[in-house]
Amino acid sequence: KPRGGNITEALINATNSNYDKEVKELEEKKKELDNFTREFEKQKDKIKQQLAWNDVTADVNTKILPEIKKLIKDAYEQYTD
Question: What torsion, rounded to 10 degrees, do the Cα atoms 15, 17, 18, 22 define?
């Protein structure tokens, strides 16, 4: 019911009320999106770290361990000769 019978004022109040409600909903959605984005970045960093670790272990397995085995074999052969 319009206050004092002023329809224009009633329309303005209704519009403002809807606007405030929509702004609040958008602010809540922005907070949710910000939280999602932060969590996504954390997960992305974890994946990058895991991939980097995979590279390290692959290097160890393909480059370092064969060298260590060769050194041990050479040392053993020299010891047994």
Answer: 130
Tokens matching residue 4: 């004092």
- Please tell me whether the overall predicted TM-score, pTM, comes out greater than 0.70 for this model: no
Phi, psi of 2 (to 5 degrees): -60, 140
- Taking every pair of Cα atoms in the chain, the longest distance, rounded to a whole number of angstroms, is 113
Are the C-beta atoms of residues 20 and 27 closer than 8 Å to each other?
no
- Identity of residue 41: E
Structure tokens at 61: 């397995």
Residue type (1 letter), 73: K
- Mean pLDDT of the 18-27 span: 91
CB within 8 A of 9, min separation 6: which ones?
2, 3
Q: Are the C-beta atoms of residues 58 and 51 closer than 8 Å to each other? A: no
